[in-house]
Amino acid sequence: MFERHAKDGGTSKAGLSNLSRRSFLRGSGLVAAGSALVDPARLAGGARAAAAPAVLGPGAVPVALNVNGNAHRLHLEPRMTLAEVLRGPLNLHGTKIACNRGACSACTVWLDGAPVCACMTLAIDVGARAVTTIEGLATGDTLHPVQAAFIEHDAMQCGFCTPGLVMSAAALIARQPDPSLDDVKTAVSGHLCRCASYPKVFAATLAAAKRRG
What pTM was computed for the model? Predict the structure, then answer.
């Protein structure tokens, strides 16, 4: 192996024999001195300080929520979902908890107008975004067009999934005033209606869109 290296212009046997223990230790000392200039503890500490996230909980922490235009200052455990807070401390029972894992969409509310599953949203993550629930969709005693159309078209049976369906249908009309049937089907495709009222839900949403237009 040494002969091959020597032929390639690398280290020869003679060169290796000239490497004394003293020169080796001197070189090692220079490397060690250079390494000492960089404090590993300081680097590690800085990395930890930069990467360390803020720790919240497990006890209650202050949380500010804007729900249906009303400001609320609460003390909540960080583990609480938005659905739990709405139905618990805020006493807004229109938002339903069914599957509690984001599979049925019964708990749909709006965050800044976008429909989300409240059971999959931590209350501490809401921040300054405006929360709108089924209770905040009407204007005083005047129902939202989607709410009125659901009643007129009997687009419900047990009614457990109805608030979430209404929120998704109303969000669709807000962003797309003249939706097609396929648009409506897509907008509510994440909702599970155990009573299978989908045809009437589609009809009510399309009727509400025409009424608004």
Answer: 0.74
